[in-house]
Each structure stands twice: as C-alpha cells, then as structure tokens.
UniProtKB/TrEMBL annotation:
Pfam families: Abhydrolase_1, Biotin_lipoyl. PANTHER family: MONOACYLGLYCEROL LIPASE, MONOACYLGLYCEROL LIPASE ABHD6. This is Pyruvate dehydrogenase E2 component (Dihydrolipoamide acetyltransferase). InterPro entries: AB_hydrolase_1, AB_hydrolase_fold, AB_hydrolase_sf, Biotin_lipoyl, Single_hybrid_motif. It comes from Acetobacter senegalensis.
C-alpha cells in the first residue's frame, strides 16, 4: 500500500443506521496492523461491534476521539504507509472533510432506495429491505424467532456486491402483519415462497438463522426449484432439544431487566446486549398482537417443549450446496445439532460464539459466505 492513504470512516452496519459512537480505539497512532485487525469499537443502538482494518498498514492519525458520536461516513482515522509524510496526511484529512459535505446530499438520495417498505406476499404484508444489484442470483435472509431485519445489520450490506440481498420481517415480527394464521414451519415457508413470487424472484440463495434456518430447510423441501443454495446459522429442525425457558421468557418478559436476562442467552459475550437493544426489543413486544404472534409460532414449532420438525431428511436429500455455521457456546439450540448433518454440508463450528454467529463473528460469516456463493453455479 506504499504511498496510499486509506480513510477509516464510520461504517454503515445497515438498516436505518445514520450515526454511530466511536466507543474506543483499540490501536494507537503509529501502530502497524494487518487486514482484519480490530481498530476500534463502534456502538450503535443495536450492538457494539469491532471496526476491522480494511487493509494492512499503519494507523497514522485518529481523527475522531473515543466517545464521539458521528454520522455514517464521517472520517474517524487514517491508515497509510510510513513513507507517506505527515503533511500529506493532514492535507488528505482536510480535503476529505471538505469533500464529504458534497457527497452527503447524493448519499441521502440513494439511501431512500434502501429503506424498508411493505410488500404484499399472499395473505401477509411483509416489511422488506432490498439492497444491491447485479447479475448474480439474489440472496434471501430469513431471521429467527422473535427477530427482525435488524438481525442482519452486519450481513446484508456486506454481501450486497454484485447481487440483490433481501431481508424481511417474518409474519408476526417487526413491521410485518402481526396476525399469524399458520405458525408452523410449513406455513411460514409458504409466506417466504409468496414473497419470492411478489418480488419476481424465481430462484435465490437462502440464508436462515435459527427458526429461519428451519424455514429455509422447509422451503427447500416444499419448493426445491426456488432454492439455489442454503446457508444455515444454528438452524432449527436438526434435533429435538430447544431452550424453552428462553423461548417462554423471551415472549413473556414484561420488564427490561427480565428481557435483558433472556437476550443475554443469545450471545457468548454478554456485553453485546446493551440498554438500547433491550429498549428496542421491549418496544416491539408492546405492539398490538406481537406477543400473541410469538405464542402462536412457539406452540406450532415447539410443541411439548421440543422442536416439532425433523428436517434432517431434507439435508440428506438436498441437491443444492449447503453450509452451516454454529456457535459452540449456543444456549438456545445446542451445537450438537451440527452432528446430525451429512458430510456434504460445509460446517463451521465457531469457538466463543453463542446463538448469533452473524453478529458475534460477522466478518468470518460474511467472508465464508461470499466465497461459498462465488463457487455456486446456478442450475
């Protein structure tokens, strides 16, 4: 990277993020870093995540101090080779900040195209965020029980290079229709199929997390022509066990403290669950019909406190490529479920990770998925 200056800017983790807090610097000016090294911690209303170095080099300047809240795209630091003079660094910072205001207006116009919007899919109105363009097959993201499109805030934009990436709120979740008529995996997979038709997508790569993984497997069984590949993150349907204490507590928690205790079961690093995240989940739970929708889905998918669907035969018969991610410290769906997949499935068992690999190990999941999708040749 000789004589190249690389700007470090406040990242856009996705969805409606407009600003972030530079919680702390992890690297001092003058320190050499490798690509992928964590340079800083960035805090949003949803999560705190590490800012990874885009390339190898030396952190020459911390433009923004720790503790400052900045808009997405704001310059926070500069990476450069030691051969670059301090004067050139200062000139770059001045020029970048002067030009930034010019670009903000154009970026604001573009961001309107990626805002979530309602799509009528069969009997449901689903909240959809659709980003990216290109000739590659689209990627559809299916979140888990009690989640919403924000579960993909570190995934969606990162994978939207050369393809559309679609995230949506399942029926009964987020800003989608709250009244759920059929909460079974079959019923929810039907809604996903209706969404693909409404978006004029005949075939897509599908990534599903937890319950969303079970829905993805069910979609493959019911509509194999619609699925080009599967990326499964701690998916439902691979064994009987499920932490019903979490499921029930997550549905019924009526105070922030109780909800925080349940949300902490989702991650290995409990510090990731901040007050703002708890507040956000509690606001969603108070919406009319939200708890009843989750009760309906839980009763259909987890009868008698166990997973009701055995989807192992789907993987045994799968004619599409499948990859699997699972945190070895998962407290919701035991990682032992990963033992029940055929050898054809590419497995990634992640150490020090709980039930949310796409948040706790975002870069690893994204990089592996990007390579996985590059290898796929659509039928």
């Amino acid at each position: 990277m000789t004589n190249t200056i690389v700007p470090l800017t406040m990242p856009k983790f996705g969805l409606a993020m407009t600003e972030g807090k530079l919680a702390s610097w992890l690297v001092e000016p003058g320190q050499s870093v490798k690509q992928g090294d964590e340079l800083a911690d960035i805090e949003t209303s949803k999560i705190t995540s590490g800012y990874e170095s885009p390339t190898a080099g030396v952190l020459r300047k911390q433009v923004a101090p720790a503790g400052e809240t900045l808009p997405v795209g704001a310059l926070i630091g500069v990476l450069a080779d030691p051969a670059v003079s301090d004067a050139d660094i200062e000139a770059f910072v001045t020029r970048f900040q002067a030009e930034q205001s010019t670009g903000e207006e154009a970026e604001g116009a573009n961001s309107a195209d990626t805002e979530p919007h309602q799509v009528q899919a069969g009997e449901y109105s689903l909240n959809v965020r659709d980003v990216g363009t290109g000739d590659d097959l689209p990627l559809l993201l299916i979140h888990g029980f009690g989640g919403d499109i924000s579960n993909w805030l570190l995934t969606q934009d990162a994978l939207a290079s050369g393809r559309r990436v679609i995230a949506f709120d399942l029926p009964g979740h987020g800003a989608s229709t709250k009244a759920v008529k059929d909460g079974s995996l079959v019923g929810l997979a039907r809604a996903v199929g209706d969404l693909l038709e409404a978006l004029s997508i005949p075939k897509a790569h599908v990534m599903g997390h937890s319950l969303g993984g079970g829905i993805a497997l069910t979609l493959l069984r019911e509509h194999p022509d619609k699925v080009a590949s599967l990326s499964l993150l701690a998916p439902a349907g691979l064994e009987k066990a499920v932490n019903m204490t979490f499921i029930t507590g997550f549905i019924e928690a009526d105070r922030n403290r109780a909800m925080q205790q349940e949300l902490e079961k989702l991650v290995h690093d409990k510090s990731l669950i901040g007050r703002k995240m708890v507040d956000s989940v509690m606001r969603a739970r108070r919406l009319d019909g939200a708890r009843d929708a989750l009760r309906t889905i839980a009763a259909a998918c987890f009868p008698n406190g166990e997973q009701g669907d055995d989807l192992r035969p789907v993987l045994d018969a799968a004619k599409v490529p499948v990859q699997l991610f699972w945190g070895e410290a998962d407290e919701v769906l035991p990682v032992a479920g990963a033992d029940n997949v055929p050898s054809s499935v590419k497995k990634h068992i992640l150490q020090g990770v709980g039930h949310l690999p796409q948040l706790e190990k975002a870069s690893e999941v994204n990089n592996e998925t990007e390579e996985f999708l590059k290898e796929r040749v659509p039928a």
